[in-house]
């Protein structure tokens, strides 16, 4: 009994979690962050959230959004490719991180697409491409048949014209149709005929759509990147080989695009395969963990980019 | 007949008890003198007593307690690696002992190995779902990783057993503030202050909560309370910066001077002075205040922010 009491006393004597960080650096960051958040339009750079392609790995974006939302990160526009477009369109339409998480938790391989064993057999034996129509139907259920000018935050998504190889950045028209085109894996789904173009997944040409974000007017971009670690993957069939090639291509593309983003958050989801839908929650959690670890860095980067504009209001002349 | 029935009952009752003794579960109490030494804060003596020969004479509860005492007292002596080794061995020998598991989790948590620590805490709550030590550890880790809702839940469970621990109430309040749950945060802070009214940390936390809710006069008053109770230079730093936010530059200047007396070259104080000079229209003085922060060797956030403000101020002065 005495031992137990001593044990309890020992545990009780251990200090708990730290109080607010009152170091000079933390307080100055907090002070300037408040100024950035409260700055009126024009007194800080327009912030663009960029969500990369990444098939099922892309659900990690939900975790990143959750952390940014908790921190009150100002996000003025959203751009996405493939799964980034799906998550981005929902977020830009007003779904909260909590809603997104609830929705993404139910993701299965066949969610928003036509993939089933029978269809895959048909694809492999009869060379019959699948339809991505379910993506559109799913999106219409979630966000309605809205147009780009009806989203709460400006939104853009990227697709590729399979006949010309051009990256097509959608900023107007029907959101669900454009997002479907953005997440239309070539070799698995039929190209989507829309606006006189034959569209496939944008991840082939614009893996991290920083350019789309800039078109929306973003002056400072934060990119959430969910690349695959293709060095560890060992494709064992036609489909996996195809995806591996797309991922490698995306990875090459992203080398340059990474440099264009002002800040990168990269959830460690490289080992999550397209068919591992049992790892959806894990992917979102990894998004939260990495974004939390990088949050101070992201804040500091945006603060430093904002100081020249903020400083205009720190003098008496500006106050008048 | 009655006697026979009585004997049978006695045998039935005594059987398991004897078996319990044979299994070695009952303690001989040999550990008590060592426990007394530990309670008397004599870690070196405790370690000297816990020789391998002595350990071999122990069984059951005594042996478990010996591992705990050895680990705890090695830790007190600063021999952290050895303490961790002892807990690891203890957990291997007693794989269902939640106290050993939690202690190993605590050691890993303290050394920053939070993923590994989490695994031990999770195992502990499988055996003892309300183990406050495990929940406290999980709450801290979840807060750090950005899982604020989970952290709050763990704090709530821990607080069922630790309702008299003001530091845990403060940590819980901090999580609630990060979640923007002001009403519950206020209650948690009030509880912490009721338990420990003279602790400045509670008042500092109140100040952060008030400021986050837009009540700047209340926030500054709480900081004054904290300073009156002996809060360190950190609280004064916060006050100097928040006075700038409250557009009271003269007072901010005075607070910054007090900080610089205590902590010469303090980055937050110099920043507050520079901002106060800018607010009074004295750009040249502002640049001069920032000079100690803008040295070629400094690359930290404060230095980069100071450099940015200096350059912006210089270029707007030149433009005039």
Helix content of chain B: over 70%
Q: What portion of residues of chain B belong to β-strands?
A: under 5%
Number of helices of chain B: 19
Number of strands of chain A: 8
Poorly predicted regions of chain B: 10-25
Specify the oligomeric state: heterodimer
How far is it from the N-terminal to the C-terminal residue of chain B, by CA? 115 Å
Termini gap of chain A: 71 Å
The SSE string of chain A, one letter per element, is HHEHEHHHHEEHEEHEHEHH
Gross morphology of chain B: elongated
How confident is the prediction overall: mean pLDDT of chain B?
Answer: 90
Poorly predicted tracts of residues of chain A: 1-16
Shape of chain A: globular
Q: Tell me roughly what share of residues is in helical segments of chain A.
A: 40-55%
The helix/strand class of chain A is alpha/beta
Mind describing the biggest β-sheet of chain A? 8 strands, mixed
Radius of gyration of chain B: 28 Å
Largest interface, with counts of residues having CB < 8 Å to the other chain, equals: A-B, 47 and 68 residues
Radius of gyration of chain A: 22 Å
What is the element string of chain B, with H for helices and E for strands? HHHHHHHHHHHHHHHHHHH
- According to DSSP, the number of beta strands of chain B is 0
Protein described:
The complex is a heterodimer of chains A (320) and B (320). Chain A is of the alpha/beta class and 320 residues long. Helices cover 47% and strands 12% of the residues of chain A. Chain A has helices at residues 2-13, 24-38, 60-70, 83-92, 97-105, 117-126, 133-143, 175-182, 210-215, 238-260, 280-310, 316-319, and strands at 47-51, 77-81, 155-161, 167-170, 192-194, 197-201, 220-224, 263-265. In chain A, strands 1, 2, 3, 4, 5, 6, 7 and 8 form an 8-stranded mixed β-sheet that branches. In chain A, helix 10 links the parallel strand 7 (220-224) and strand 8 (263-265). The longest helix of chain A has 31 residues, at 280-310. Chain A is globular and about 75 Å long. Chain A starts with a helix and ends with a helix. With 320 residues, chain B is mainly alpha-helical. Helices cover 77% and strands 0% of the residues of chain B. Chain B has 19 helices and no strands. Chain B has helices at residues 2-22, 32-39, 43-49, 52-56, 60-76, 80-93, 98-110, 114-127, 132-145, 148-161, 166-178, 182-195, 200-212, 216-228, 233-245, 249-262, 267-279, 283-290, 301-319. In chain B, helix 12 (182-195) packs antiparallel against helix 13 (200-212). The model of chain B is unreliable at 10-25 (pLDDT under 50). The interface between A and B is large, with 47 and 68 residues.
